Amino acid sequence: MSPPQTPEITDRLTAVLAPSVEALGLDLEAVDLTRAGKRSVLRVAVDRDGGVDMDQIAEATRAVSAVLDDTDAMGQQPYTLEVSSPGVDRPLTLPRHWRRNAGRLVKVSFATGDPVTGRIASADDDGATLEVDGTEVRVDFAEVTKAKVQIEFKPAKRDERED
Fold first, then answer.
1. What is the DSSP string of 105-138?
2. Fewer CB within a 10 Å sphere, N or C end of the chain?
3. Do 76 and 38 touch, CB atoms closer than 8 A?
4. Selecting from 3.40.30.10, 2.40.30.10, 3.30.930.10, 2.30.30.100, what CATH number does the domain 95-149 have?
């Protein structure tokens, strides 16, 4: 019988997996365990400054798999392991998320006041500076309730489009 899917299990998996991921110079961004029929799916997201490439994802997959094989972290339940980088739809919750997305357009919501959309100019441990309509706006992380990168599609230049 598989254990129930609880935050305690996710926290335990995070604690078990983080050292092997960090030893590779990566940050463990998320651990998600869900049921998929008779198996579980363990999704692990890793990242680092400058992003991760496929070789680093493969290396992290081997490291995570080795830890899971050497411990009873998953018990006897069958599971599928998926290791990836976080998607662009991941909320910005830590200062490093803001720093890694410098130059990108973000929408920021606050507990009070209207949301703001701007481009991240810089970030530190306490907040970020956004460029909003040509003006720099300071955003303190303590006031942010939600922040997400906005997907931008650049229109093709006139000479690249078919007429």
1. EEEEEESSS--EEEEEEEE-SSEEEEEETTEEEE
2. C
3. no
4. 2.30.30.100
